[in-house]
Each structure stands twice: as structure tokens, then as C-alpha cells.
Amino acid sequence: MEKMSRVTTALGSSAINGRTMFCHLDAPANAISVCRDASQVVVAGRNIFKIYALEEDQFVEKLNLRVGRKPSLNFSCADVMWHQMEENLLATAATNGAVVTWNLGKPSRNKQDQLFTEHKRTVNKVCFHPTEVYMLLSGSQDGFMKCFDLRKKESVSTFSGQSESVRDVQFSMKDYFTFAASFENGNVQLWDIRRPDRYERMFTAHTGPVFCCDWHPDDRGWLATGGRDKMVKVWDMTTNRAKEIFCVQTIASVARVKWRPEKKFHLATCSMMVDHNIYVWDVRRPFIPFATFEEHKDVTTGIVWRHQHDPHFLLSGSKDSTLYQHMFKDATRPVDKANPEGLCFGLFGDLAFAAKESLISSDSNRKPYPGGDRRYPIFFFKKPDQTEQFAHVSSALSVFETDLDSNCMDWFVKTAQLYLLCGKPFAELCDHNAKVARELKRPQVSTTWTMLRIMFSDPANLTPGPNHPLSKLGTLPLMNSFNMKEMNSGMGAESRLERSKGESRQDNSHLEPGNSLISNNNEDNEETEGSEGQAEYMFGDAELDDDDLYSMEHDNQTEEQEYTLPQEAFQLRHEIMDNPSAPEHLQQDKADSPHVSGNEAEVTCLTPIESFSLISISQPLFTPQLPASFFCPIVREMLSYYAEKGDVQMAVSVLIVLGERIRKEIDDLTQEHWYTSYIDLLQRFELWNVSNEVIKLSTCSAITCLNQTSTTLHINCSNCKRPMSNRGWICDRCHQCASVCAVCHHVVKGLFVWCQGCNHGGHLEHIRNWLKSSAHCPAGCGHLCEYT
Asked: Which portions of the chain have biased composition (kind: Basic and acidic residues) (predicted)?
């Protein structure tokens, strides 16, 4: 834990030696302060008030100021400060509203010197004047600041900020009469101690409480502030108005800020909650800390540089009951772990890529950016002390332009305008949306809609669309028996397989020359005339499930064919063709078939396409065994796929069309995220009507209220012309109905239309019908109303 690197700093005639070290405290610390010669540190808290000596290798406890059998609340400290001119003088801010001074030169055990109890609430900060020995300033939760002369028993002046509680007060290092105060309402005030009646200047520094402030030790006009908005801002106070010159964005509320000695642009911060680390920032590079101290395991409550002219040692106290001395050489450098590459998309699809020049080989074919040279190399030349400089950086920026036509979003707008989400049966909605996607050259989306229709529609009620393959079959009778002649005449040109007689197997069962009907044979039981049997077909590679098979029955039964068992139960694999024929006992020779001419030397067979047609137009033998819920997991994955791909339009549209079929399968937060993203896109393209329709059709409570929370309707009484303060139909002032139709004289509780000239109106249909025959107002006011 303890790092052994050492450093010696020359400060005039004295020298500071030390290393990174820590000691355990008896209780959490609220504040720390160091004496003028940097040899001792005082630690104060609710249950601790001790002085430690800073030796070379360790902290040594020197004095416990919390004495007595039952210490009073005066020892419960919120802040502590060691006078930088008088080495025996301390001041503490107590949680009970007391300001206490302590004289370490007293011979008694109790070092308490003076007690001021003028504040009514907790004192948050005490501050000694940097050059005036007896001047002490305090800021309290009661909103007042008080200046004490330690030679007197009462305050000499009181400053009222006319605001909320004071969180910090700091005397200016260069201006004798000026001090700054920060408040919980986000304001910072500058005061002159000679004028307690009114502040000299006030400005809003943060959007929330300002917890701390610190004057720059070298630059007279720089003031650093930190607040709950997670920002550290540096203000130039030398101008007529406070000017923000630097801003650092941190990751948590800023509790303390301290300028680093001898380093003009460096300051240290710690957070009030969440983040336990101490950061040292270079305000010129505010996006990444210059150095980080990560030793504390709980929130850091106090930080102070060990000496006002030594930038190498930082002291800190924490709620984890530890006191640390950090050596700057042991700090972590976040820039060493930072990603040297960056990638960002522009508004119109341009891509910017930044990387180290050493990683980018020279490319002579790279075109310069039209706006000028887009390469921004950043160089930091080597300095004698490398630990005080950021890492050497040399980067190049490349910009890749995107063709606007290739990134056009016209398909999104047209899809949003043409999609149907409600108002028709489910199958028609799917067909319509599939057609829209197909016309916009989006075949995958179109196929998805078609598959949804197949999955969630009743198979017995499927009606092929005009472009469906079944529609090309003509008007085939939906019956359980058919003959080859009807099939050939209905299907038109059919696909045929040319096979020679030598290639046909000798064990095939052929139809009799005079028999044009399809007969069924069962290899287990011999069927008699008039019996009905189920056909068993082998489809080769395109085998179908039992649920998809449909029976084919005879129209007229004749003599049964003699059936010979084949030598093989299944045809050998290498004999299966890419386009297998139908069962071979359905094939006939050209001379025996009544459907072909005697000159044709080919075999008529039933192809898989025709088999599919037969199955599609026949009656199902069994009821479907796969319910719609069986497909829900697949559809859920499909919706997630489209959403992750960026097509949130498809995800939301399917979610609305399927409704309760799929809604329970997707958690509410995911649905709300999809809806919000899609509505945001619609509003960016100014598709207000579509956006409102999506909001109305959604079932998420957080979405349905969107078009209500952003809409405000101010209603005035049509009689007395005063605003309606209640939510009823009766004005609470003139006791008349607010919105009465000028035609039927009834209260309008639905769609209301009124004339902007005379303010009379009524039901939309009534006013429209009235103005068809008369141009004057139906209320009789004589105004010529116009309906557009």
C-alpha cells in the first residue's frame, strides 16, 4: 500500500521530506487543515478533534483537543482552519451554530479560547483573513455571514445574503477587503468587509447549490467554484461582469476545490458522494483528469495542499476514518489508460475517426476534406519534469463523407404514412403492410409480414391475395376428389419431368389405360371397392409433416390396381433428384393417358409445386396442432432483431398489429423504449399525425399520456370572457355554461368549433350546416362568420 518513492522540496531555508502514507483515525473526519510550516495537521469531525505531526515516514498524534468527561457539541466540528500567521491559533465551526477559537499555547488541557454563539443554525465554514491576525469570517446555514474581531466578544459585522444557506466563504488572497460567499441557490456573492449592508457583485454560477469556492493563490481575479451540478468553473472577476473562462465536468457533486500551489492551471477536487477519488485537473484539458488519487474507500471530506508553495504533497481526510498524505509522483495518470482512438457520426452520416498518427499509415490517396485540412495534430513537447506534463500526443483526424442519397430516409417516411396499424382484420393488415414494404424494395420486411400472417391466422380461413401463387390456379373446386384432366385444365402449363422408359423402375404401379382416376393403395390392408383409404406419399427431400398432409379421395371407384412391393422400402439417396416427381404409381405412359397426344414421348407427373397446390386447396385432415402462442418466442426474437438493427419502426408496427398476441411476451420497459424511439423519429420528420396515432394505439401508460402532458388548453367563458378556473362546464363567476352550441343551445362536450371573430361556436356539424345556408353568426351577433 505504502509507496516508497520519496521527494524533497526546497522551501527557502526548510525542506519537506516524505512519502505516500496514511494513519487510521478514531472516527470519520469532516475537515482538515495544515499549519503554516507544514509540520502538523489538525483533523476535525463530529467525534474527533486531534493534531498529528507529519514526520518523514508516518503520522504521529500530538494532541487531542477533545477533552472532558462529556464533551459538548462545541467539539462537534463541521469545519476547521489553522491560522497561517499565528501558529497557535485554530478556529472551528460547530454543528450547533457555535464558532470556537482554540489557543494551543494555553497550559491547561482545554485549549478553548473564545466562543461565539450568534448563528442560529449549523456553521458550514470558517475562514481567517490571510494577513489580518484577529479577523475571522464565518458562514452559516441560517443564511448569514459574520465577521469577528478576536479581541472582542461579539461579531463586528453581519452580512445577509438575502438568500438560502451559506456553504462557503473565502477571503481573497490579493484583495484585502474582499471575500466571496457561495449559496445553496446557485449564486456567488462578492462582499467588501467595510460595507455589510449590500454585496458588491452577485452572479449565478451553477444550476444548483454551490458547495465550495477558492481564490487563485497567484492570479488575483480567478475564482474557482464547485457545485451539485458536477461542474467546476473558473471565473474571471476582474471584468465588469463575472466571466466563465474554464469549465470542468466531473462525475459527481463537487464538495471541495483547492488550487494547486505553483501550478497556475491545476486544481484538486473531491466529491460529496458516490465518488471516493481525489482528482487533479488541468483546466485547459477538462475532459480527463491530470492525476487521480484512489486510496480512500469512502467519500473524501477534506483536502489541503501541505504547503502553500509545495505542489508535491496533498493531505486528505475521509469518512473511512483515514488520514492520507499523497505524493504527486504516486498518483494515477488516467491519460495513460485512455483510449487513443475516437469515432463519431455526424448529423448527415459523415464519419470522423481520430487516432494516433503512428497508427495511421501515410495514405496518398486520401482526399482532403472540402472544408479544409481536417487533420488536427496536437503536440506536447517534452519538458524537463515529465510527471508535470500530459502524455505526448500526436493525433490525426480523418473525415469520411457519406453520400446523402445512400442514406436517404424516404423509405421511413413513406412506410410510416402508408402502414395500416388498425381498422381492418389482422390478415388484411399484414397483407397491406407486406405490399407496402415490397413496393419500397424491402423484401425482408415484406416476407416478415407475410410470415406473421401465416403464423397467427386460422389456416382454414386463409384467403390468398391477388399476388399469391394459389391465385394463378384459376377457380378450382374445393372438393376431396379430382382427376388429372381438371388439374391440367386449371393449372395451365405444368412442369414435367422427362424420363425414359428405361430409367423407370420395373416395380412401379401404373394406371390402367382406361382409368383416369387416382386410386389409393394400402400396403398393409387390401381395400375393396367403395372403401376410402389415406394416400401415403414420399416427398423425398421436401417431406411434409403429417399435419400438412391432406387426403385425396376418389370420385368414382373402379377396380383396384394390383400393387407389387418394391425391393427397397425407400428409394436410394443417390437416385433422388433435385426436382423429385410425385409418387410413381400416379404416372402414365403417353399412349395410355387420355390427357396427352400420342406423339409425345414423355411422362406426365406431379411436381412438388403441384403437390403443394393440391395440399393448399384441399380440406385439412387434422386440426392444426401448433397454436399461435407457439410462435411467440420466435416473434419476440424477431422484434428484438429489428430493434437492435435500428429499424424500430418495424418493431413498433408489429407490436401494435399483433396486440395481445405478443404484448405479454415483451417486458414493459422494452416496449416503452421502442415506442419512445419511434415517436421521437416520427416527430423529427414532422409526422405528427402518425406520431399521435402510435401514441393512441400504445398500451404503455408512460406513452399514452405523452399527447396529454404536452398539451395545455386555456378556456375562457363565452359569456363573461374570463378564464375558467374549474374543470366543469359551469363558469364559477357568471354561473353560465361555458361552451354552448349557438345552434342547438346545448353544452358541447365533444368536438367544438368557434369563430375567431365573434367567439361564438358550437357543434361542428351544426355550425357547418348553418353556414351552408347563412353567412351570419347563428348567435345573432351580426358577425359574418366563415367556415374553412
From this structure: 495-510
